[in-house]
Amino acid sequence: MSSAMTGALFGAGIGFFSFALLRFVAGRIEQGKTSSPDPKRAADLIRIVGFADLLLFPVLGYVFGPVVLDA
Known about the structure:
Elements: H1 3-30, H2 39-69
Helix pairs in contact: 1-2
């Protein structure tokens, strides 16, 4: 397996973990378990960041994997 694909898989793992964690946090905020002035909006923004992580981390891993692994 190439270093770019290894980086992409590693990035996908981190992105998925981050996505799941942010979804959990957004659910807690939406249930009112935290003190937020507008819980619905805060939860929606955190979910958007979770989707961005899910897309961005594999791409970053693909780009930076060869830099780190081939050094």
